[in-house]
Design brief:
Blueprint lengths: L4 E5 L3 H13 L3 E5 L2 H11 L3 E4 L14 H10 L8 E5 L3 H10 L4 E4 L4 H20 L6
Parallel strand pairs: 1-2, 1-3, 3-4, 4-5
Helix pairs in contact: 2-3
Length: 141
């Protein structure tokens, strides 16, 4: 089986680097994006198996400013992004965001700083469920 590709979408380079190091150490390929336009383009061209998505992005000078929810809405319109599992990562208040994240189909919600072991376990769980679904009904509840 080929390596799973994970798209990290966050404007904070430290967060992106930290997550990328941990994911690569666990044999994932990593794609990086620091804004919504780059994220949507990466989904179209590189077809990630999962997306780690921040919610808050700073305003961009002379460009469209996206937040994580707008990115999710766009991804759901794309054939390549509609079924891609999205994991929310944010420093924001979970009470403020978790309902909307679930409504848009996020599979997990992590508050920064992300506990890497919990994130890795969530990724493995989602990928195992995909395998079970693709192989047939055995193992499904």
């Amino acid at each position: 089986m080929s390596k799973k590709k994970i798209l990290i979408v966050d404007d904070d380079g430290v967060v992106v680097t930290s997550l990328a190091i941990k994911l690569k150490a666990h044999d994932y390929d990593v794609i990086k994006a620091q804004d919504g336009s780059t994220a949507v383009s990466a989904v179209r061209t590189q077809k990630p198996d999962a997306i780690l998505l921040d919610i808050n992005f700073p305003p961009e000078f002379l460009a469209v400013t996206w937040d994580g929810f707008q990115i999710m809405e766009w991804l759901r319109r794309l054939e390549d992004g509609a079924k891609t599992p999205v994991f929310i990562i944010t420093s924001g208040d979970p009470e403020k965001y978790v309902g909307r994240a679930r409504e848009l189909g996020a599979v997990a919600f992590f508050r920064k700083p992300v506990v890497h072991e919990q994130l890795l376990a969530a990724l493995q769980r989602v990928f195992k469920e995909e395998v079970a679904i693709n192989q047939g009904p055995q193992g499904l509840i």
